[in-house]
Design brief:
Oligomer: single chain
Strand content: 15-25%
Number of helices: 10
Bound molecules: zinc ion
Number of domains: 2
Strand order of the largest sheet: 3-2-1-4-7
Helix content: 25-40%
Structural class: alpha/beta
Largest sheet: 5 strands, mixed
Distance between the termini: 16 Å
CATH class of the largest domain: Alpha Beta
Order of helices and strands: EEEHEEEHEHEEEHHHHEHHEH
Length: about 300
Amino acid sequence: MAVIGVDIGGTKALAVRIEDGKVAATERHTLNGSEDLLEAVEKAVASVSDGEPTAVGVGIAGLVDQADRTFVWGPHVAGDRVAVGAELETRFGVPVAVDNDANTALIAELELGVASGYRDVLLVTLGTGIGGAIAVDGEIYRGGGYAGEWGHMRVVADGLLCDCGKRGCWETLASGPALERLAREVLHANPSSSLARSLGDQEVTGYAVVASADHGDETARALVAEVGRAFGQGLADLAAIFDPELIVVGGGLGSVGEGIVGPARRVLADAIHGAAHRIAPTVQVARLGPTAGAVGAALLAAEATNGS
Ligand SMILES: [Zn+2]
C-alpha cells in the first residue's frame, strides 16, 4: 500500500513514495517555473512509482484552494485556476489531495518531525521565497483559505520588486534570490574578492553562496548571516502576532541550518515585543528537511483516503 506525495516549488518537483509509514523512495526534479503544472506532477509521480499508488497528495507553492483542490495562483509556479485534484484524479484513477506546500510541510512536521507534541506552531519556509503555515491547537489554520503568506508582508516602503508584483516584501530580503542578489553586488563591486575566488566558475546562486560559507569564506558567511538577520526580524513580527510555542524553519535555504537560523534566532530574541520580559519562541530547523512538503502531501492523501 503505497501513497505518493509531490511538492511543487519554484525550482523543483520533489516526490516521495511512502509505504508502511516510511519513505521508500525520493526523487527531485529541477523546474524552471514555466513547466505545465500537471505534467510536472505526473513526471514526479512516475519517477517514484512502483505499481499503482492508493492515493496521491500534491503540495504546491502559492495560493491553493484546498477544499476545491485547485491551484489558484502563485508567483513562482506557472498556471492559474488549475483544477489539480479533478484533473489528476482522471489521469491517475486514484484519490488526489491538494494543499499549499507549507501546509503539507507542517502536517509532516507535526506528525513525524520536530513539531511532534506541540500544539501552536508556525512553519516558515525559506527558499525561492518565504511561505508559511499555522497550526492552532494542533490543527492547520487556513483562514479563508490562504493564511500564512507572510513572505509578502511589505517590510520596506517602495523596496525591491518582488516576484508577486509588489515592492518591499519580506522575501525580497530573505530568500535564496536575496542571497544571490547580495552576492552579485559584492562580485560587481569587487571582482577579485575572496567570494569571487570561492565561487570560481559556478553559477551564482543562493546555494553556491551557502556552500562557500560552509567552506569558510568570510564574505559568504557575512551574506548568509545578513539574510538570516532579515529572516529573524520577520520572525519577531510573526511572534508578535501569534506567540507560538515553536517556529519550524523549513525550505531549501532554511534547511542549511545554523548559518541562517543562528542569526535569525538572535535577532528574534532581541526584536521580539517585550524582549526583556519574555522568552522568545523556540526556533528549530524542520527535521524532514526538503522532503517535508512531499511527505506531508502523502500523509494528507492517506488521511483523505482513510476518511472516505
Ligand atoms: Zn511579494
